[in-house]
Structures are given as C-alpha cells and as structure tokens.
Protein 1
Amino acid sequence: MERNPMRRQLAIMRQSLFDQGYLDEQFIQLEELQDDANPNFVEEVVTLYYRDSARIILNLEQALERKPFDFNKLDGLMHQFKGSSSSIGAKKVKAECTLFREYCKSGNGEGCTRAFQQLKREYATLKRKLEAYFQLARQAGPAETACCRKE
Amino acid sequence: MGMATEAQFHVLAVDDSLIDRKLIERLLKTSSYHVTAVDSGSKALEFLGLNGSHEDGQRNPSPASVSLDEDQHQQDVEVNLIITDYCMPGMTGYDLLRRIKGSSSFKDIPVVIMSSENIPSRINRCLEDGAEEFFLKPVQLSDVNKLRPHLMKGRSKEMQQNISKRKGMEEILTPDRTRTRYNELEVV
C-alpha cells in the first residue's frame, strides 16, 4: 500500500485507465520491462508511439482526401497503425483500427471516414490521459519499494 | 579449454516498425542478449554480409557497391538467432527466412517469425520452411524465454564442432565405455 498520497493518486489514475478500457494487458507488459536501469521505458515507448504514429495519421488523412478511396492502401496504413497501438496496449484506439479495417474490407468509404474521426478522438484522449499520468508519476517520485510499484 | 562459454548470445532483430523494434530490443536485452535491430530484410542480409549479388530479381536497392562472394563473409559478425517481423515492405520475413535457409553460411542460424496476424496457413508455411518459432504480436517476455533452447542448441553444436576439430581423430567416447554403459543397466 502506498503511503505517499501522490503515489496513491497515481495508482488510482492508473487503475481507471484499465477499468475504463483505455489500456490493456500489453501496457502491463511494458511496465514489467521497466527497471532501475530503464526507469522511463514506458514513457519512452509511449512518446515514440505518438511521434511515430503522427506520421501514419497524416498519411491516412491524405489518403482519405483522394477519391475514390484506395482501400488497399488505407488498410495497409491502418495495419501499421493498429500494430503500434497494440504494442503499447492502446485498447480503444486498437478497437477503432479494427473497425476501420472492416470498413476497408467491405469497401465502405463513409464508414472509413467516420471510423477515422472516432479513432482520432480516442487517440487524442489517450494521449491527454497518458501525459497527465506520466506527469504525475514524475512528481510523485520513485516508488518506495519494488513490490509496491504496481499497486 | 578457454572457450567463451558465457559470451552473450547475439540476436539480430528485423522489424519495420520503430515501436516494435524498441520493444523487441528491450525484451531481448532484459534476457541478457546482445541485440542488433534493423528495419528491413535487406539491411539484415547486408549486416550478415549476404547481399543480393546472387539473386536475380532482387528488387531492393542494395547500397553495397562491391559484389562479394558469399563465402568470404563466413560469419564476420556472429549472429546466434534472427527474429523477424513477417509483414514488411519489400522483403517479407518469409522471404528473409528463405534467403537465410538457402545460404550455406547462414542456414544453421535459428530464425523466428513474428506477426500481428494469426493466419494458420502463414504460420505453418513458416514453420515448414525452417522457422523455429512463430510469435504473435505483441511479443511478450514469455515468448522471448522460448528462444533460449534454440540458442543453447546452436552453441552446443558449435562447441561440439570445435571439440571435434581440436581433438582430431581422438574419439570422445571410447567404444568400450559406451558398450559398458548400455550393457550394465541395473535396477536400483
């Protein structure tokens, strides 16, 4: 049990990200790869994700401006984006990716456009929440003992 | 004997995704492997010293200007295992697998394939064509733990070859001892 109130708040924030379905098990896998030698691994990966995926989002936007839609290209881009999102445990974002790909497969352009808008919303929401989380983590300081790290 | 028995295993990781490269690198380093991560099959071949000089129809632009005979690059850089993504632009992980297994210098390097898509025919084809394992992404620590036996097997084969070379004609186990062992099975 965390004695530090900030650490407790951090634990609550973290738990709600899982409870509300923003993050899945994969995020925990990332946390398990973090240690004293790599104390910021999770934040590094997430930062890299947002930087890298910004490029894919731009490509998707550009592809969605060209009519008629090249569904193969769109699906290919989304496959990449889904992969990265899955790797960081971005559960809701990943679900939107899956939906988008289904629309691609059925050639539903309107569906794709809608799904993409929703995806961007989820993507932005997660970014905000994770930024707040990492900021609090930095303020809260290191955990007292390793066993309390994941409380 | 002076063998570097505790030398780190060196894994070559191949993935076009920046995130997945970072992840696989961390997973491998956590398991105390030395890692080289590259972003394409052609860069992997280049790293090994196997460029496209023998292949016709190789569409990847090869930056190597010198056409080298494959045998001249007999394990310049020692790689103990290759782990590669399946879906990559240009050369897929499967293409890379075929190139490695088709190479006299490198065919004994264990190859592991990773993919985000669970397609049984794809998995079977890779395993049939020589991949040791097929991991579904995202790859986890429990997957990376499965690599060790393949690495140990490679090393013990390598050591066995070195021992045979050094001892020359001398037999490691004398025929007499072998016979004795098998003939004296006792119920304890």
Protein 2
Amino acid sequence: MGLSALAPLWSSPGLLLVIALHPALSVPTHRDYCVLGAGPAGLQMAYFLQRAGRDYAVFERTQRPGSFFTRYPRHRKLISINKRYTGNANSEFNLRHDWNSLLSHDPRLLFRHYSRAYFPDAHDMVRYLGDFTDTLGLRVLYNTTITHVTLDKDQRAWNGHYFILTDQKGQVHQCSVLLVATGLSVPNQVDFPGSEYVEGYESVSVDPEDFVGQNVLILGRGNSAFETADNILGVTNFIHMLSRSRVRLSWATHYVGDLRAINNGLLDTYQLKSLDGLLESDLTDLAILKDSKGKFHVTLKFFLEEAGTNQSTDSITLPQDDNDNFAMRVPYDRVIRCLGWNFDFSIFNKSLRLNSGNAFGKKYPLIRASYESKGSRGLFVLGTASHSVDYRKSAGGFIHGFRYTARAVHRLLEHRHHGIAWPATELPITQLTSSIVRRVNEASGLYQMFGVLADVILLKENATAFEYLEEFPLQMVAQLEMLTGRKAQHGLFVIIMEYGRNFSGPDKDVFFDNRSVGQTEDAWQSNFLHPVIYYYRHLPTGERVSALPRPAGCSDLSVRRVVTHSETFTHTLTCQGGRPPHTTQPGSFSSLCFCVESCFLFALTRQKLPPFCQQGYLRMQGLVSTESLRQHRVESWLPRNHAATDSRLEDSSQQPGDHEPLDAPMAPGPLAQSLDSNKEEL
Amino acid sequence: MSSGSSVFRVGISFAIMCIFYVPTIDSLPELSPQKYFSTLQPGKASLAYFCQADSPRTSVFLEELNEAVRPLQDYGISVAKVNCVKEETSRYCGKEKDLMKAYLFKGNILLREFPTDTLFDVNAIVAHVLFALLFNEVKYITNLEDLQNIENALKGKANIVFSYVRAIGIPEHRAVMEAAFVYGTTYQFVLTTEIALLESIGSEDVEYARLYFFHCKLVLDLTQQCRRTLMEQPLTTLNIHLFIKIMKAPLLTEVADDPQQVSTVHLQLGLPLVFIVSQQATYEADRRTAEWVAWRLLGKAGVLLLLRDSLEVNIPQHANVVFKRAEKGVPVEFLVLRDVDLIISHVENNIHVEEIQEDEDDDVEGPDIVTQDDEVAETVYRDRKRKLPLELTVELTEETFNATVMASDNIVLFYVDWQAVSMAFLQSYIDVAIKLKGTSTMLLTRINCADWPDVCTKQNVTEFPFVKMYKKGKNPVSYTGMLGTEDLLKFIQLNRISYPVNITSIQEAEEYLSGELYKDLISYSSMSVLGLFSPNMTTAKEDFSEAGNYLKGYVITGIYSEEDVSLLSNRYAATLPALLLARHTEGKIESIPLASTHAQDVVQIITDALLETFPEITVENLPSYFRLQKPLLILFSDGSINPQYKNAILTLVKQKYLDSFTPCWLNLKNTPVGRGILRAYFDPLPPLPLLVLVNLHSGGQVFAFPSDQAIIEENLVLWLKKLEVGLENPITILPAQEWKPPLPAYDFLSMMDAATSQHDTEKVPKCMKETDVQENDKEQYEDKSAVRKEPIETLRIKHWNRSNWFKEAEKSFKCDKELCSKVN
C-alpha cells in the first residue's frame, strides 16, 4: 500500500568498493540515512528506507540484531502480548493485538509464527529480529560501534549540515539524516550514601537459590522491580519495595509501562499479609548503612548528616528509634536497584544540542512531536528513546507503538527530501463515513498510538471529495501542509482514539458500575478506547492542537465539531444505534445514504441534493432497495418525510368550522407557524 | 398602557334594525351608515370603521382590518367599513379624514372608540376589541396591592390566570385575550403591563410576556398564599389553551392499570407521565410524596399514583418510579429513584424533545423516535434479523480469491459487513443469484473487505460496495450501474457475449437487427446497435469497438464491415460509416450517419438514442433525463396515460414547441413516490392528471398547467407562450438551500464545555504547554486529591437512570451493547 515494489538491494556498489579499497584512509563514506542501532526501531526504519529504495545503513554494536533482548529482561519473559488468535481475518485489525511484530509486507514475519507463548521468551524476540533483518535483506553493519557523533556544517547538505559518525576503528561516516534508535541503555542510578552497596538489575543473580532465607530490599516500583521480586518471592524471608511514587497498575492507567498484572505477585502477598511490603520514600533522601555483620540498614540522609561523617554504623540514629511505624527496622541481606534506564547521551557532541528533556531528568533526549531533535535538524530519535513524546500516555516507547511512529517519520522524510507527498487516498464524499468507520474498526496505528497518531481527512473544494491521510502525528497538525505536501484549504477532520478523560489513572476505580455508555448523546463520556473526530474549518494555527483533554477556557475556536462514538465490545462499529458522523455546519456536507426512491423525491423537489444522491443516483449508481428493505424503509423513514410536507397542506385547508363565539376553537394559526419553523430548523 | 384606564363613552345608535345581517361573510363589508346601524343586533358586538367616501379605498389599516374580519367573526363580532356619504351624515363620521375612528358597539350601544393608530395590526385589533368586551373577565391592574386584593377575594373560590404583557395590542396580549374569551367565566384573568409588578412577585429576566396560574381555589386559610405555576412556553393562544387544560386536570390520579396502557390528558398534550409506585403499607406516605412531586412537576408532566397491590401486570420488584414518555411506542422505564429531586431532574432531562402537538383529538404522529437519520442504515438495521440465503454465492478469502478468479468466469461483490449500503446491496446480489440459479456459467462470489482488506486493495477497490467481473484472459470489468437487482442482472446477462459482436453476413445482420440472433438478450437491451463500416475504415472500426466495449453490459452492439456492406447501407439509406439502431419494442430500425467516429462521440450518440421523446419517468430512468439539464415537463397520471394527452404532447414535440424541455409523464401506480412530489408542489392537491413544468436546473420554479383546462394542443401552446413571456406565476419554488440531515448533529463540544464548567469551577482552567502536561501528570500521582472522582459520580447517577431498563432487559436474556461492553 503506497509502497513501491522492492527496490534493488543496494544502490551504490561503487561506494562499497571505495570503502573496501581504502579502509585506512578514513575517507568519509556518505549515506543519506544512517540508523543507529539494529533494535526493533532501527530495523523498522531500515525496512521503510529499504522499501523506498533509499541510501541507508544501520550501525550495530554487536554481531546480531536485537542485542538488548539477548540479556534483557533478565528473567526472559517479555510482557508484550503475543495474541495469536483474534477470531478476525483482518490483518490490520490483528496488529492491534500483536505487540511484538514489526510492520512489513511479509505475512511470514509476524511474531505469532515465532512463539506460542502469550508472554513470549526474549530469545524468540532475538530470533525474530534476526529473521526480519535477513529475510528482508536489511543493510546492517554489525560490529560497528559508533563512538562519536558530530556536525559538519555544509551548505550543500539537506539540512545545512552533515552528521559525522566515527566508529571504533576510526572509520568516518557522513550522513545527511541521522536516525537514533539506540534505546535506553544506561541503567538509572540514584546517588545516595551507601549506594555502592546496591546491586543493579542488570547484574544481579537471577537464580532464586542465591536468595534463600534472605531479607531483600528492592528499589524501584516498575516492571523490572516486580519481575525481580516475582522471581525470588518464594524463597526469601520477605521482600520490601521502596520507591518515590505509589505503585501504578497498568490496568488502571492504560499505560503498558506501568505495573502489569503478570508481574504483580508481590502485591498479592502484600495485601494478604505475607510479610512482603511496599514503602514510599524519595530515594535521594535515602542512606544505606552497612553494619558489622554485613547487613544493610536503611536510614535517611538527614540523620547521617546530623551525625557527622566518620561515625560508625551503630551510633547513627535510625528512624525506627523515634518512630515505631517505620517499616524498615530490620536489616537487609541485599539491596537491589531496579530503577530503569536512561538514554546514552555520551557519544553525541555538544554541537548536536541533543539535550535531555528537563521533565525527565536524563532519561530521554528532547524531541518534537515529529520525533526530530529540538537541537539539530535532520536528527530523529526513534523507538524507546523517543518515548518523551507520549511518556506515561501512549505506547510510543514500545514496539507496538513505535513501529507506527517510525513509519510516520519515514513519511515525513519522504516528503522533505524526496518530494513524495504523504500517502493519501482520494475518495468521493459519499465514502466519508465508510472510510472513517473502516479505520476506526480496523486501524492498528490509531489504536496503539491513541492520542498521538491521528488520521486526517482533508476536504476538497465544495466538499465533494476528500483525501484520507493515515497516522499523522497529532501535535504536528498545525504544520500539516508543510510536512505532508497536501493542501488543507477546505476544512479537515482529525480522527484519534482516546480513553475517557476521567476513567483511567492510578487510584481510580476503573470497574465502577455503568462505566460503559450506551446512548449516542453520551458518547463523549465514553470511558473505553473510543474514536473522537474533530472537524476544523481551517488548519489550527496554534502550536498545539487542543486534543482531549481540552482544558476549559482554552477552547480552540477552529474546532467546529466533535463527533464520537460510544464504544462497543468488539470495537466494531456498524453505525447502528447511533448516528454516523456528520455535521450540520453551513456549507458542509453529509454522507448519509439514501435509496433511489428518496433520491428521486429529492431530485424533483429540491434544487440541491444530498451528496449521496448527487454522486450516486444521478450518476446512475444509486442504491435500489429490495422488496423487504423497501418495507422497512416505508415503516421507518419515508412517512416522516412525507409528514413534513403534509402538515403544510393541512394547516391552510383547515377552516374554523364553528362560529359560536363561546365555543370557538382556538385558531390553528400559531401552530402552523411553530411546525413550519420547526421544519426550518431541521 | 393608556387604553386600559381610558373612560368609556356611551352613545346611542339612531338606527333601526330592519335587515337581517348574515355574519359569515369573510371580506370586509362596505355599508352606508344607515345600512350599518340597521344590521346591529342586540347583544352582538360589532366593530365599525367610519371613513369618508372619497378616501383611498385601500390603506394599511383597512388591510389589517380586513384580516381581522375572520378572527373576530370567530368570536361573534362583526366588522364593517362604513362609508360616510354626504347625504347621510352620522356623528361617527369625523369632520376630517385624519380623524376617522373605529367604534365598537354592543347591540346598538357604543362600547369604545378607537383611534386607528391604536389598531396598528390584526393582533392589536383583536386584542383591543376583546379587551373592551371582556372588561369584567380581565382585570387590568398596575400595582401589587391590586393583585393581592384580587387574590384574597378569590381564595377558596376561583383560580386566577395572571399575565404580564409588555404592551397592549401585541400578539401576546391577543393570545391572553383569546384565552380569556374562552376561559374568562371559569378563571379570573388578571393583566398587567407593569414590569415592576411582575418583578415584585419574583419573576426575573422577563422579555415579552409571562403567564402564571394562581391556585387560589384550594386555599382556605386567608393568610396563606395561592400556589403559583409559571407557564414556561411562549405565550401563544394554543400554548395558553394547553396550559390551562393541564392546570384543569387533576393534580394526582390513582391508577391500578398497566402503566403502558394508561393515558391521561397530559400524554395527549405531549407531556410524559410519572407513576409513583405505591404499596398498601406505605400508601399514605407515598401519596404525600406523589403530591409533592405533582406540584413540582405541574405543567411538565402528569403524576399518577400506581397501586402495586392491585396491579395485574408485573413491574420490577425494586422499581419505585415508572416513567412513560409521551412518544408512542416507547417502552416505559422502570426506575429506582431515592429522592424527589431525582425524579424531578429525570423528568426535566427527558422532556426536551416534545413539541406540543396539534390538537388532542387529532391523530398526530408522535415525536420521532427514529435514532438514525441515515435512511439506509436505519432500514438495514430494522432488517437485521433476516437470514439471507448466502450459500447461493461463494464467499472468497485471501487464500481462495486468486485461484477462484483464475479458474472460471466470476462476478465478485466487494463489500464490508459493517456498512449499511453494502448490506442492502448484498440482498439485491443474492436476488440476482436466485434468478440466475442453474442458468448461468458465471460464478457469483463475494468477498468481505472488512476481513480481507489486502485483497480488495490489490484489486484497486476502495469504495464499497463494488462489483467486478472477471473473465478468463480478459481485464476485469467494473460494474458502474445502479446498485439493484435488475440492472446487475442485465449487466451479467448482456456480458455473456463480448461486444461489439462481429457480424459476418447480410443474413446474420438482418437476424441481428430483427432481434432473432440474440433473442434471449433483447429483453435486457431494448435496442441493438449495428455499426456499418467499409472494410478499409480501420480507425473508425477500432473506435467503434472501443465504444462497444465501453457500453458492454448496458446495450447490445455489433459491427459489420464485410465487402458487401453497401447492400446494408443502401437498404437502410445510410452513408458509411453509419449506425443502425434497431428498437425492438417499436420494431423500428433507423440509421444515423457517423460524422465523427471518435469512441466518445459514438458512445454519446448511442446513449442519446436510448432516450425516448416522451418517456414514462421512473426512479430508474430519471438520471438519464436529468442529465439533459432541461426543465422537465411532467404529466402526473394516476395509472396509464390517456392516449389523447400523449398525442397532444407528441404533436407539440413534432411541432418543436418542446425543444427546450424534457417532456415526460409519471405513472403514480408505478412510481408511488410521485405523490410525495405532488404534495410538495401543490397545496391543496387538485385532481389528476396534472401537468407541471419543473425548472430544476435554474431557479427551481414549478409551474402548473391550469387544472381546469383540458390538456389539448391549443391550451398547451397558449400556456407555454404565457410561460415564455413570464405571464405565469410559479406555484412554488423549490428550496435552494443545501440539503441538511433531518436530525441535528450532536454538539459534543458544548456538552463537554457545559460539563467542565460545572465541575471544574473551583479549579482555574489553565492552558497547558506540552511540558506542563507531563509535569502536571507527575504531580497528579503525588497529590491524591488532584483529580477526584466527583464528575464520574455525577455521571454515574445519570447513567444509572437512563440505562436502567437495560438492566431489566438483562433478565430476559437480551444482550445489549450496554451489557456486552460491561464485560469489556
């Protein structure tokens, strides 16, 4: 779809030859696109570049793709769902429930062929990524560690500068566009007194035997922490978990990065009084002391400072001395740090201005909603490292999310550097509802990247036709024309999927009664993932599209209509029981459908016809109803239509028949007016 | 304001009554003074305008007065214009033209005189006249003290209808007076124009008018105030009438019948009913509650006490309130509402739909309960339970598609099962399969593109439903005709052979033209086209082949280009290259020389030739004639057309009178929807047949041939000439505004805004920057109280009420969307 046939494998064999002949001379080899890292995001990008026949290379540190998964997660169980059966044949729909596959045209490269487990083993992911690379013939340069990245200003370059990559052998690579898909590779460490006693998730033993009869403190409250706890739950004396924030359950937040039910065995035992515990404290206030027996005591930095520096363990006040409620009165045998990962900024030269976003400390580089670095044009961040765009909101930090954002980035690049407009299907206006319902029913990108990627419908002049653009980054809608090469002069629809604004969040009762909404007019209060359709008369001009949640008082005046559907169990809309999206704005349109008889009536009683009649019936393509349908139609719809015409007729023919003053009937005059005006409104 | 307090002058009429006056004349009678006074009857009121004989015959006032004749007659008041002639001067005849006045007599007693400027329009005339006549029934007051005096005087005796109008003579004043005319003897009407008075009884934001019902009759204790019910609808005669009717109805009724069957005046007036379910044990308390509710809902709903113990039908055990909407056919709702406020709010949230219906006796349609405004979607939805014999067509999948399409000749329907148009057309498709069963080599298949989007995309199908024909060794052909059984069947049948047919002998050509050659096909194509070419006209032949190929499935085409082609061309007087058109129904063969042999032009010639000169217009063929962009001259006929009319029009066609029109006729028996069209044109509908000219493409005027004239050539010609020079007036003009869906769209934005402003008033809304969102997000987790569940809580109550009968449905194993998604 929209992708050209498989391009020749490699477009410049001559260049390769040059590299082979002069390896020692450090002549920079040029590539249009350089991808850092052969993980899922790097490979996904490589796939799109390859299909488009672009000049690219992927640089990979190790000798095979997906090296992260050779070691992580430590306990080998992936928590991304491998749902192999959905009862649905639609391949696009099935991607909604496939959290591991990368996007490709090859149905063999679906993860369900690689593992039968619902929560698959990480080795299968390694095998899958290897096959993906080999089957598609992606160009990956293995054993190439990029040690330094810098900028070289050059007027001729696409972006005014080249990215200069130096590998461990001193070989220099010149790139027009740099796509960073290196993930988060630096374990997050918090500095506090005693942090040297802490073992890291990346190196701690995964053998439960090593924990038999021990008291264990785990720092962190994420999936890695719970995964570690789960592994040793049965053999330890007890496990305490400590983190700054309260535990967030992904089934309450809809965020797959929060604690998943599969890992929360410890919560179960905590709530059932089985010695395990959860504690809340800021790690930076913490101090860990090692006593003479080699056991660890937890205290606060504050007490340590009070006591001075060179005190022995025993003389330092411990919180439990004053406050009996302090849970950590017992010493621990081990302290394990499971605090997540940070982006590796170290290889990037300052000139790249690849700063970390302030909101997340050192975790993520700062990027725009188009995934381009805020510091240097032409540098895009993909994959897990790009999660700052939708951190704690959507799925952009995970395979099932970033496979779509990679495609979006590729489409942006195709337009920016190769003049290929964002792919779009042009259809007559009568297909509007169908197109929307179809995407809402089956689109996986909208579904996985809810609230982040949006489908955009650009209306043509007089709203007789439209262009349908898929999965455009919502926050970039203001720059849509510039970024896609499409024109949005005559109004547009923006379609996204969202959860109800008050539904999810830590601490909320997500199973409350009547959480589902049955009436169409209540659709906006829908709690489950549901489509929201915005209609704008013009492209929104502000920096930010006021997507939901839309704070009151900041209403974007250009938003004309929001149409949403109430959810259904299967997420299949049939447009029944609710009205299909249409608007009644002046000069607008509708894609309501009519049988030929109605069109016939309209054609002879109106000067302007509904589009469905104009474009279908009058072009001899109308829908002729069968006998049984005609029956239903007569019952439901047409009588009303006739009634409207009838009323006028009866009003004027009615005569006040009685002239006895005292029993005079009320004149029918006012009613005739009210009916008429009512008709006008409709 | 002035008129209310003005003094009455009483005069004596000198006239002697001697002629009986007939009071049912509609137009304003013009009489001499003497004659006028002779018509006055004792006890009857009469309004007379005295004017100078030489004054202009029409004036604004006279027009208004003329209009007031009919309404005043309804109240038994006659109206007349009295011409003051010199011979019989009357004291009512003013000296100067400007000082002419209207006088109101009762019998021969003068009640009031009106300067003409107070009677500025028909409303003012009616209002003033009634006001003067109902001097006792309608008390005009200016201060609160007056109101209190009246109130006190009537306590325990009668109820009061108190109204405020901004000024005397405005439409609202007329409405009040008209109501007073009917109800003035039953209720005391009190009127004021003092806004201060209204404000002093606690009404705010009054724009034009207000009307209160004071329930004074019930009040026995003089120190107690009368209860007041405000009428919330605008002040119109009808609204006041309905309002008073509701006030008249009993406050609370006890019933022991099935709520579904119960009907009261409220229901007939478009108001819902609220049943308070009561049991023997709690009867007293329930009755008090019900009365309290009834007072609160007075004018908004009818309240009944439902005695559960003596009830024969089952109502759910826990339900304590039953809500019955005014719309017919809507099931009653069983609710559990813990306090009175919930009942009130439930009613108030649910009555917005009702428009007050015409008359309680009339069999008017209830408010629309159809939720869909998509005709096809609604129809298909209603038909959802029907099982189609789908097995007559082969369902394809991604795996079987290519193999099936390669193996045999196929018609493939590409559809999506969630789309109404697709599902409607699927029925026609199955009908085609039934008709073709066992007779066709063509395999009818279908593929659900909701399941196999990739196949459909690969076949370049982006719109649904879509039909393609796959024939071995040939490019697939897209079907572009009407989505119906007949047209698709025709397409399939005609496509059994390939076009254009190559005719190789003169004899074969004759058989072809006579219809013998493809006997079984000519029922699908009323015309066969034969292209005649000399063997050396290669490009022309290619072009014709292209045209024939383009038209395949719609019309039969053949080609003849043997050496002896001249035999044929001579026989049919054609010059090569030429087309022979054989019209099988008429048995005629005509020839058309081909000036241009371009494929497009050939297609155009053939499609034009398919049109008739005076066709019966049908739903199916209108588009072909509509395309011509000419005004339609339609003869609406109830059944077959009268041959005389047909001949008259055909003669006009021959005489070239109708070149700028598309003459056609419509058989209402075949095309019943034509009645809807006539209703839009005529008001009232004259007897059929009707000849109408509809200028659809420029202006939308509709002209009607006078129905009292015979449809004969002379009359038609005359009428057309009049039309041409603009002497005829259109009977109606078709609306030119954009077509709009019949139901308004949901305005979710304002709903959301309303909800946020309600709940977030304590929180100052702020615009969040991208980074703020994330920071804010973090803060929320720290601060538990940042987002409380309050909004959800309120929603929950609301939903509970509404979705309650879903819960009931659960018991009867009906799995509804609501319930299903709860499992989600």
